[in-house]
Predict the 3D structure of the following.
Amino acid sequence: MLERIAMLSSRAFFLCTICLQAAVLAAQTPPPKAAPPKPDTLVLNDDERLIGHLVRSNGSSVVFKSDLLGEITVDWSKIKELHTSGRYAVVPKNVKLTRHGELGAIPRGSLNEAGQTITVGQPDGAPAKSIPVADTAQVLPESVFDKDVVHGPGLLQAWTGAVTAGATVVQATQESRAFTGAFNLVRAVPTETWLGPGNRTLVDFSASEGFVSQPNTPKVKTEIVHAHAERDQYFSGSRVYGFGQAIFDHNFSQGLDLQQNFGGGIGYTAIKQSDLTLDLKGSANFVRQTFAIPGVDHNLAGSTFAESLWRKFPRGMTLLQQFTVSPAWNELHAWMATASASLTVPVYDRLSFSIGLMENFLNDPAPGFKKNSFQGITGLTYSFK
């Protein structure tokens, strides 16, 4: 009996060893590589042939990434033929894309263009659809169409923004430290700008802190903190939007322990271009101010009027300028205003050098404090996208 058990154990051990060796070999064997996608072909009117990949089209021109020339933009009128192996969605003009409307009717498939007519190959043997180039609004990869148009980005997706940091250290008879930091995040849905605005979420935070000290002299402290969150919802087919916001400020230089500002109102995107955006806003607000000196706190009912300008210059430089004024209707002397401007200059990849100016004005600060505080901020900025 013991001999039989030993024999069975040895067989089982042998089989386990074989299985283990097979598993190790399978793990070491690389999986078969997927066949690379076939290239797309673009033929110009002079019969010059470009091999590469179709990026997208806005209805008047085509963005094509050539293996030889890189990414180029070509007018449809200069294209003789276009053939793709990948699948694309062709969005006709004057089509309102809604999830319960015409999304399912958008032609999808491989493309063949000749004679200023796009032929979309349909799956499952369905007949191909032909659309004149003049009647197309957008041509984009099917994966992009599904992600950005059909499904839309998730809550943690489609965020853009930047983080800025700077510091100054002095070590001598006087010692001083100054630290600044900021981040701003924007989530605009839909991400495809040709669809028109839907909603926008903005979150930003900035802090500036430092001190100066020397022997036999009290330490001088600086501390300014600002936080802001806003949600914009555009009215259908319009540049007008409703918004709600919450703003928190702490400014040691003005004796302001905490200012809480809650409100909502109407905004208007007066200019919306690829390199220029101008927003105008007006809101009703409740403001609670608590100061370092007791007995001078305020509860204010007022309004905020604001403008925000974003401008993109050649070589990737960007300018952001903002101005707000907030009258208080129950205490007219307690009005406020802020103004800021920042210039960002690309340095390398996503790193940039930034210069910023900010002015905060309180017409009714704590006794003994100035009405205004000015900041000049420089630092390195890292862009998320």
